[in-house]
Description:
The chain is mainly alpha-helical. The protein has one domain (2-198): Orthogonal Bundle (Double Clp-N motif). The chain contains 9 helices and 5 strands, in the order αββαβαααβαβααα. β1 and β2 (35-40) form a beta hairpin. The longest helix has 18 residues, at 2-19.
Amino acid sequence: MEGHKVRTTKIGRFWEFIRNRIRPSPVPSSRRPGYIGYEKSRELMYCDMFAHLLAHEQRSTIVDVSELLAGIYLAHAEKISAFWDSSDQFEELLLNDCRIDEPRWFYWIRLYEALYHRKRDTFLGRHMRYSAQLLKTLNLAQELAASRMKGDSTAVLIPEDVLLAIAKQPELDIGAKLVRSGLDLQRLELTVKKWGESRGG
Length: 201
């Protein structure tokens, strides 16, 4: 019981760490004076955990755009698959640029083991930071989330916000490749907009 309590506390602290990676940001709203705060959806927090896991497995202390894109695939594949008629080119991008070369469930097992087994060499408790390019991408995702909010609200960031933010950066190599992979941008943009409407934003 004591060991379970230690693991539960450790996991709880990591959830809090992931939740706070995007802190409330003073992005002015054009619809009102003041500011909009931000929080990550639980789905995006899972994506972020996978991104940390992948960066750690590469012996890196920096989480980059490629890791978070891979994390979105690993944690959210069933949802984002709707944005491709054929996923062949996207899967090739994941293999070549994100180093996803194993079945998804292999990564889920490793994430489970990192969270629930007491091992020293895991990403839990490691000091890792976002790359400058990933911070830029997340800032753009925040703007996308803010655009669908009305009134005094907290904008909730979802994986689709980040996916769209990556695709909207053609100067970014992985962003250009994402668009060339057959991503249906129109469908993705509509999904992002409707998510806000369905939440009453």
